[in-house]
Design a protein that fits this description.
Elements lengths: L11 H23 L7 H4 L3 E7 L9 E2 L4 E2 L2 E7 L7 H4 L1 H9 L7 E7 H10 L2 H9 L1 E5 L13 H31 L6 H25 L8 H11 L12 H19 L7 H34 L1
Parallel strand pairs: 4-5
Antiparallel strand pairs: 1-4, 1-6, 2-3
Amino acid sequence: MAVRADLDHLPHRQQHELERIRTTLLTEFEAAINSGGGGTQSWRRDGKVLKIILFGSYARTDWVDEPDNGYLSDFDLLVIVSHEKLTNIHDYWYVAEDKVLRDPAVGRTVNVIVHTMTEVNQALGRGEYFWTDIIRDGIVLYELPGFPFARPQPMTAKDASMMARRYFDKQATSTQEWLDLAQFAIAKGQTGDWPKKAAFNLHQAVETAYICVLLVHTFYFPRSHNIKFLRSLAEDVDQRLTAAWPREGRPERRRFEMLKRAYVEARYGDQYDISIEDLEALSASAKTLSGLVASVCEERLAGLTSQIAG
């Protein structure tokens, strides 16, 4: 199954950025597998990047490029490798991601997911929407010959509806539980480690809410606790979710960054400090997000149910 390979629909600047990103990913992956002599394991010694595919809004034509008000679509990239151990972000992709992040010639956030050909083709065989959408809309930036995608198999409307409902019921309940825990911690005030616990629980509520959207709509979410990445993917599914996190003001952007950092720093960092005022503002945004997620997911579930009847 072939995926298109043209970038003519993108401005020259974005095309140039993608060229730099592709080069960095390939170069740093090669350096990672060769570090320390390359190792003796064949999966590492012969490890390869099989494909790099651009997906999401820049692969289509609906990206947002409004840096003045804080709205700027991310580049979303799928990297397919030859062995499951090469999907380990810390061991093989951390340096590449860091170099891309710090590259002054790349003007937007870059999100990378890494999977094997087996994983992708099995998902295509199950008809999972995330992967069938990539096959339909994605653009190949790099590939080795001889590694075709499987032909996507359609998922029945009944199976899709049942799976989406199970995901929604579980994740929506979990989101509310994280919100309840956060509210309990906020009520303790600015004493001890309660503000940190509140921030961590709010992070988990937001992470779970975005996972809910992604699972209900696409049956996939990436192995990431980066809520900025999850937000990008979820808002790509439904732009109405942007209402939960205004970008126009500096305080709003600062608070979201604090929440993003909370997953690690609120648990392990001695210097992480957050006020009750910030926590209450974040809590309000998280509750708004939860309501929006419930709305767009119920709409999606209703649509799947109608397909069964049709």
